Amino acid sequence: MRRLPLNSHIQCVGPQAGVSHKDEDCGIRVRSPNFACIPQGVPLWDMASLTTHHERALTLLFAELQAASGEQSEAFLGTPGAITERENGAGVSYWVHRYSDAANRRHETYLGKVGDSEVTAKVAALRERIDVANATINRVRILARSGFATVDRKAFYTLASLHNHGLFRAGAMLIGSHAYGAILNALGVKAVAYSTEDVDIARREALALSEMPAFLEMLRETGIEFFEVPSLDRGKPGTSFLERGGARLRVDLLVPSKDDDYPTVPVPELKAYAKGLPHLGYLLGASQEIPVLSTHGVVLVRLPVPERYAIHKLIVSQLRTNTSGKSEKDLLQAATLFEALAERFPGAIEDAAASIPKGAGRHISRALRMLQKQFPQTDSSAWEVLGSLPQMPS
Which among 372, 275, 357, 378 has a CA at the least distance from the CA of 315? Predict the structure, then answer.
């Protein structure tokens, strides 16, 4: 990856476009909040290397799964399993559903007596659900082998439980790297693989839910033994939930912060507490429903729109610069989405930029300077997109 050479010429994007200057510090110099000086003929990142388009047949298959997931009211919280006939000591035959839960423990659920008309209808409906689930899993495997992003077994069943309780339809959102993978799938592109075992759930305002079990109980319905992680600040409730036994699966509950602090905020409708994050309200300001793929099934979740996700990644990359590797990952994800959006949805980034919160411009300025040092570029349209973002003079 190339760095910007000293004394390179740069071109202004914005009110003073067409005016050339000398760059003396290898940075993107900002003259006003409305435009930035952009290097011309010098790579920011290699547009061809960040994403690759999936074949049309695969994107059509994904679209079919998306439509099917919208009709799925309830997802299995374990393997689809099988229906088996049993006989008790008195010679009475009955049906059972055998399956394994998210923790890979085997279960056998009683369905009712053989020959009962209501039980027969119940068994037939369950058989149809099992057949549909198995067919879906087979199709997801095709997509996974071709580079579509998938989540692992425990993360999938965790999301499935929240889906079954209606959290995503009520306004809760999946954010973080699992959301990034699902967004790439929906855009029809594949990119550098990501790795995470965290599930980040956010909500902007109170969820429109009727009486619901506590958030921790919803997580435990998967069969995974979650517990609330104690806060580092003594006396404050926890906002994260971890799997027992040294496993790394972690679920974080997040809400927007009113300022630059990271408060602990009650979420009464989930009988839980969440961590407040600066500028999270911007990310959650527009959403879409997209399926999350797993070789264990498909579940529809609510995600931020990709243009806000990309801009928000620029912002948060500067809010956690002391976290090893995460800032660079944020920048890479932002750059990847800028590329995909500039080609497929021109104008989307510019529209999302109009709603960037006050005070975020300084973070974006720093992020852009870091981007131009780390990622080469071959498409000048990407610079035009970046030049549209509000910034602060450095």
Answer: 357
